[in-house]
Amino acid sequence: AEYMGEYYYYSDDEDGDEDDDDEYYSYYSDDEPQVTRRGAVSVRVVVWEAFDLAAVKSNGKSDPYVVVKYGKETFKTPHVANTLAPKYVSQLKRFKHDRSVKEVIFEIYSQDKKKPVFLGRAKLPIDEMSTGDRIKKRCKVRDMNGKQTKTCKGRIKIGVMIEAESDAKKKKK
């Protein structure tokens, strides 16, 4: 693991082939006290950017946006016009923590006049995270069967943090 500022960089890529596995940037908070009291906990989800997405428009571009799914709740980023590498610059959403939710799903679509075009999705498992834990990850974009294809390709940079509501309120001040 290589320390990169606030995060550690982990790669399962021993042979230098970038397409083998997803890349992890993780930080588990040993320095911060773990919240053991009962109380409200939230899940903060961040979408930074995507890379090398599939083109669906005649100009060789797409109008991508991301739909974040946390259990039954959803959040949609704004679309970014005419690009295969949208930057969302920390589009974030807080959800009330639900321990039954095992993963956060990030689905990428291209905005279209008729109906959205599915560009792929990524999943981030959160079932083993505790309050104070953070994970930042660059994931491969895959189809519904978990494979990269010509129409479902690229990567997305995303993150999740589990925090106590009291900690979230302190950060806002």
Explain the overall architecture.
This protein is mainly beta and 173 residues long. 5% of the residues lie in helices and 46% in strands. The protein contains one helix and eleven strands. The chain has one helix at residues 165-172, and strands at 2-4, 7-11, 23-27, 41-51, 64-70, 73-76, 87-96, 103-110, 117-125, 134-140, 155-164. The protein has a seven-stranded antiparallel sheet with strand order 1-2-3-10-11-4-7.
Question: What's a concise summary of this model?
Answer:
The protein is mainly beta and 173 residues long. 5% of the residues lie in helices and 46% in strands.
Choose one word for the global shape.
Answer: elongated
Number of strands: 11
Report, as a whole number of angstroms, the end-to-end distance: 33 Å
- Low-pLDDT runs of 5+ residues are 1-38
Largest sheet: 7 strands, antiparallel
DSSP summary: helix tally:
1
Task: Work out the helicity level.
Answer: under 10%
Structural class: mainly beta
Mean pLDDT: 79
Q: Order of strands across the widest beta sheet?
A: 1-2-3-10-11-4-7
Q: Into which percentage range does the β-strand content fall?
A: over 45%
N to C succession of SSEs:
EEEEEEEEEEEH
Rounded to an integer, what's the Rg over CA atoms? 17 Å
